[in-house]
């Protein structure tokens, strides 16, 4: 904590120095900053940001021609059964799989951190699923979860009849398992890095005073993992949307209704050229995601400020 | 000591579960046609009563690979489509994302906070949300159903900018200040200090990018209608229905480039992931 404070105060000092004495450097910094950013900014601007303004405009217009229809498209989306189902499923998926993945990967990281040998091999093993393309692994999933597949055989031995698991309520949990399988290693590496940054002396001091393993974890490890938690959570959120690939390859356009996600819905709207609904829904999702991200960033800055004040 | 062995054993079991799918795919790819029909036919080809789980092939053979290599030109078209798509996206990302990340980490300019927020937002949004805007542009530019439709938007993905920014921000300021005092300009500092010092991060965005675009499904599915342009990720699932004997071998060949790159670059991948997590 002390280290961070020193860093910021150091930077502040440079800033005031620059502002007062070398104000000519400021113009150069702005110009060159934008020059470095330019190629990327042109691309994102041209392919996403500017066309998105068009999307916003279209979301208030009717399908044919350019008549203004106000919130009509939004009302249509909100009343759409498929949209409610898909939004609910996506929210449920996030609410279940994000905490689950974060806890499991943190647990694995702590365990792997305690292992004295073969640590490298374990990391390789846990990261490996990340490298396996969805298309390759889908055959495997079919073999496991088909009506006549391996899982059916296995539970058959206990007197339960097999079924097409992907067309049952279990599909949701299969997808959760798939997500965790794929992302456990990535998150584990992030946690390991966060854990490694905590000075060993703190644990030694606590142990001398009689703190147990659990107390050490709760009072030393967890509070210092805040920054790592933010980044890991954010990247896990990004990756959670990608599970659509597996879902789509396994179950197609219209999967079991427990895994009918927003991605499926957008895809089907696109195929049917239902641009009105797509634009309105896209605008709503951008606002919602932007709101969540903004709140997260605000909370992060806010807690950082409180910490700095305390020191 | 006992606890250490129990821990190792436990992790080993978890690990075995994690690696099992890859192991099964490999085992199945070494089976002959008849054996495959016996074990997997029930699921994949309407043959026989039930699928059987066989860990090791009874009559291992490389015939499936030979068939794949000599006998399926469509597979190779798809393979090259994937290769072209992935390599061009990565090359473009080097030119766009690396300087952008440098700008975000080393410069102060008006609008930086807003732009950074937008970049993060774009990183999070799933493809389907930005699909409409992408479609509108590609359609006006008459690029639909061409390779460029997948490649161009891929180049300007903002995830690599996010990851690299953290790496660049971790470079000690004193080092760069020293170079500046010695009279080096911003471009010189970027080329001779930023790029070499940020190499682990650059490697890791390349590996992550490779895994991402080798595996791309949504973009080609939405923007490519001509099957001759399809990458492996779209072609492979079809293959299971038509050529079951070669499907497993095809699965293995598909994941091979990703796997090789992964083993070759595991260290820099790890360093890159670490850099994106620790320094804020």
- In one word, what is the shape of chain A? globular
Helix percent band of chain B? over 70%
Low-confidence stretches of chain A: 1-10, 16-21
CATH class of the largest domain in chain B: Mainly Alpha
Q: What is the averaged pLDDT score of chain B?
A: 86
CATH architecture of the largest domain in chain B: Orthogonal Bundle
Largest interface: A-B, 101 and 102 residues
The succession of helices and strands of chain A, N to C, reads: HHHHHHHHHHHHHH
Q: What's the CATH C level of the domain at 92-252 in chain A? A: Mainly Alpha
Query: Looking at CATH, which topology of the largest domain in chain B would you report?
Result: MetI-like fold
What does this structure look like?
- The complex is a heterodimer of chains A (311) and B (280).
- Chain A has a domain at 92-252: MetI-like fold.
- Chain A has 311 residues and is mainly alpha-helical.
- Chain A is built from 14 helices and no strands.
- In chain A, helix 5 (119-131) crosses helix 8.
- Chain B has 2 domains: 2-61, no CATH class; 73-278, Orthogonal Bundle (MetI-like fold), CATH 1.10.3720.
- Chain B has 14 helices and no strands.
- Chain B is globular, with a radius of gyration of 23 Å.
- The chains are: A mainly alpha (311), B mainly alpha (280).
- At the A-B interface, helix 1, helix 2, helix 4, helix 5 and helix 6 of A face helix 1, helix 2, helix 4, helix 5 and helix 6 of B.
